[in-house]
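Might I ask for a little of your time on a matter of protein folding? What I wish to show you is a protein chain and, alongside it, a tokenised description of its three-dimensional fold. I should value your view on which stretches of the chain appear to form regular backbone elements. You will find the record immediately after this paragraph:
***
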Amino acid sequence: MKNKLYAVTMLAGVVAATAQAKIEMGTPFSDGVVLQRGVEVPVWGKAEPGLFVTVAFADAEVSVDVGADGAWLVKLPAMSASAESRTMTVTESKKGVIFDDETDRVEIGDVLVGEVWFASGQSNMECPIWGVSPRYRDGSGALVTSMDHLPNIRFAKNTRTWSVAPTTAKYNGWKKFEPASFKSGALSAVAYYYARELYLALGGVPVGIVDSSWGGTNIDAWTPRCGYDGCDASLKATAEYKVAAKWDKSMKKGPIGEAHQQPTVLFNGMVDSWAPMAMRGMIWYQGCHNNGEYQLYAAKMKALRDGWAKRFENPALKIYFVQLAPYNQNWPGLVAAQTKYAESEPNAALAVTADVGNFYDIHPNRKEIVAKRLAVHALKRDYGFDIDEDNSPVLESATFANGAVTMKFKYAKGWYVYSPDRSIEPAFEVAGADGEWKPAKLQEVNKSGIVKGVELVVKSAEVPVPEKVRYICRPQTMGTVFNQASLPLGPFEADKQGLR
């Protein structure tokens, strides 16, 4: 070949050089990509076995032999954030020869360096920033996407693909946050607002976000096989599940109702080939589809996050995820499992949405506040912002005495009640020995909704000797109690032995 120069293009989800070039780039690497700042950045692909690949970007140049299987991978040194549009050059040649008449070369243009995140989950993550259906899109999507010209925020939206074995994810390249990019409305609304919040808070540091989401899917399909290594015994059946290439309705069981809901298949089809891309972490919004087996959900969350951390070679991978919002049911078992996992994993944090549900729509359309509650975790934990509190309150203890229940909470230094109808009677309930739940009144709250003290005390005239207490666990009840950081108290149930 005569020292040919090739641009990187997308073809059926595979990043490859045009014409006769032999270099194929790994999934993330096409024009407009954002590289993660502050860490080594793996760059990989395929080339002719026995040759030599050199990757040059910014001030770095790194070379490696191509393996017998054609695979190669280099690591660029850690870089500072940069909004400068630069080119990454990848060359393939005979060993010891960088540029001559036998050189193949690929150029990846408009490369930025900043913060990289992954967004995944089922329909409330997939719910687009704008789309055809008024019941399945963000409420302000047309407005914000018409105004935002933020070209240093980039996104990649994966095509729905399931696979028995790891395969190359399909996407149509990196897009800029500009009105023309959102005509189809495909990008997740939560991912949109999350990336935007980070970009604005970080003062213009470039942000890249990958959206891999699919409505009606379970957590199992998004979990890589390695996530089950050493997993809880309760997940044995899931860990050993044999994926069927040919699906039959007789195979339905639990949360596995279709071919694309089988364990591992969405990770294989929509995530695996992005690894080991350098990134800060992932945001996750899922749970409805696993509600029928909520007892397993905390263990499954652990398998999900641990598996992604292994596959992306990032032990400190962050997972910030969304608690299910009230609907015509309030998911008490599932939200308790979500809280349990968040409290057990230092690299995880929970965004509570007890106040933004919709009793008539499983897809509430206020996605911006959801993203803000995810972003506050990242700003405090990853970016060093001086934020007093990023967690919603979590019940620490409940004392049953003198006809009242006195509750202490973590992450709360003060309280207030806010309801659109000006009610100051939150949906607390208590039960006595008969187990019948009755409404309970919050004590020491004034007409404006300000609560005195740091403990919450509730009583019910109908239950003189309470033995249990719960909050927004009854269907069609909404959260109205907030801590001093404007973060809502989520659903819980407790008795004298503690949380249930």
In short: Residues 4-112 form a domain with the S-adenosyl-L-methionine-dependent methyltransferases fold (CATH 2.20.130.20). The CA atoms of residues 82 and 89 lie 17 Å apart. The chain is about 15% helix and 30% strand.
